[in-house]
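Predicting holo structure, adenosine-5'-diphosphate bound.
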Amino acid sequence: MDTHTLSLLNDLFQEVQQKQDWKAGLDTLFISMRGSFVFDNVAIYLEDPLTKGLDVAYARAMGRGKNAEADAAWGESLANEVISTGNIVMKEPQSGSTHPNRLALAHLIGFPLYIGARLSGALVVIRFGGPEYSKLHIQIASLQAFWVAALIERRDLQEARSELDSVQRQMRLQDDFVSTISHELRTPLGFIKGYSTSLLRQDTTWDEETTHEFLNIIDEEADRLTRLIEDMLESARLQSKTLQFKFSPVRIDALLRDVATRINTHHPELKITFDLEPLPPIHGDGMRLSQVFDNLFSNAIKYAPTSEIVISMSASGDYLRVTFADKGEGIPGDYLPFLFERFYRVPGERTVTGTGLGLYICKQIVMAHHGNIWVESVLGEGTTFIIELPIDPTL
Ligand code: ADP
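Done. Tokens:
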């Protein structure tokens, strides 16, 4: 190989390698290699490890001829042959044949793709109307096939890597969760035990007001325990997709006002402002949707104390959009992508009690409504949760 070719290959290698997306890498590779090895269409077939059937992983029409994506069936039988033999397979029209339409003279060649040392698929190219594949062409195309296999292997590794990262993060969160939950369970239990033991003491008598206060604390702490256990059960049911939803027409503006009224009875100081556009009801589970807003309120009270809450509702395309904004401290941008993960709590958030289940539950409920929830936050300015729920035009 001369130095000029080597330097071209080196440049191409760098360019392909830099592409984040494997398909963009393949595009660059094929467009560039076509200068030395002409073909009209290219397709990559990969074996499905479970069904053993062939899937078209990539297809592209480079020259004249058919639309590759719509018609990648042209190479399938050749790909099957490549995979069953493990060899390069060629299919060319009989030597010397002519036809007025060059599309009728298909020259096909298929190369095995070894991914992680396993024969996993085939690269097939088609050239209409010749010329026949020369030895040099076959060598260039074989190099191309090696390269394709390497790119697919890199894609598989990247996918495996990000899956592993997510599993590792989940494991770490679960570890944290065990210590958080034991603390969260012990605290209300400690109060209940402490105040009931005091009330039961034989050597002391309590006046009515104190007795009432103690009983109130016991009652509130028992409620807190119940909520905690319900959250845990619910998040487990949501994860295993066994939570039942009861759908019916729901007016979100009325639901928001109901939840706010309930919250205000416990937190009369909390200022809640509404800006609600009148919209038709949606198809939803009112109890679960109330739970979503309950959670957002309880978070705002915990993480943005003293802030007012502004809730707005409007139509956004086919969706009803609710924005729920506080003017608290906000959340650093680095943490925002993980906020809706099960057990996730912003690091350093240890002074405020919580389990990291609330927003996970919110997200699962909204998704069960085929909606969307996300968060926007500006440090020092506040946090806004946005929920979109599909509008049902029949309601
Ligand atoms: P929990 O409140 O039990 O920790 P959530 O899933 O409800 O769990 O919330 C996850 C994290 O998101 C919280 O730990 C908190 O750090 C952050 N967070 C949620 N809502 C707000 C908010 N309104 N302002 C600031 N941080 C918030």
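Residues 377 and 383 are 4 Å apart (CA to CA).
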